[in-house]
Design goal:
Number of helices: 5
Radius of gyration: 16 Å
Keywords: Kinase, Transferase, Two-component regulatory system
Helix content: 25-40%
GO biological process, one term: phosphorelay signal transduction system
Pfam families: HATPase_c (PF02518)
Catalytic activity: ATP + protein L-histidine = ADP + protein N-phospho-L-histidine
CATH architecture: 2-Layer Sandwich
Structural class: alpha+beta
Organism: Raineyella fluvialis
CATH topology: Heat Shock Protein 90
CATH class: Alpha Beta
Largest sheet: 5 strands, mixed
Strand content: 15-25%
């Protein structure tokens, strides 16, 4: 809701941006991952392809996918030993995966408001979103966001 209010304020008065921090972006993902490591969650970050400038809304959506995925691991995973964040910059799409190796939770616990909000955010950017348990152990978020060709 805070982001929505900020967006509405920007549309009403561009001068509102003065003195505000820029929204988070994938350029800050290493710091985000380090915060989760400091909280006790071993996180591996894998980036493939060539990172590039993304449209602001798309960049924020991608950052929020990683943030929510890691938050869910920290809050909800049962005995996770690690989480893996994969960011793949392809020519026409950005793929994001957040996976953990915790014990699988009951299905009714897995899809809360945070995941529904991510699904909506990703859909607004023309992407696809999947979340669910892995066959043996763990949980994974899989997101694909379309990019304009370079």
């Amino acid at each position: 809701m805070t982001e929505m209010r900020r967006m509405v304020a920007v549309l009403r008065d561009r001068n509102e941006l003065v003195g505000r921090e820029p929204p988070p972006s994938l350029a800050q993902v290493e710091g985000l991952v380090e915060n989760f490591r400091s909280a006790g969650l071993p996180v591996e970050l894998r980036v493939t392809g060539t990172p590039r400038h993304l449209a602001p809304g798309l960049d924020l959506a991608a950052y929020r996918v990683v943030q929510e995925g890691l938050t869910n691991v920290l809050r909800h995973a049962v005995d996770p030993r690690r989480a893996v964040v994969t960011i793949d910059y392809a020519t026409d799409r950005l793929e994001l995966h957040v996976r953990d190796d915790g014990a699988t939770m009951p299905v009714e616990v897995q899809y809360g408001d945070g995941l529904l909000g991510l699904q909506e955010r990703v859909a607004m950017n023309g992407g696809t979103f999947q979340a669910g348990p892995l066959p043996d152990r763990g949980f994974e978020l899989r997101t694909t966001l379309p990019l304009e060709a370079p």
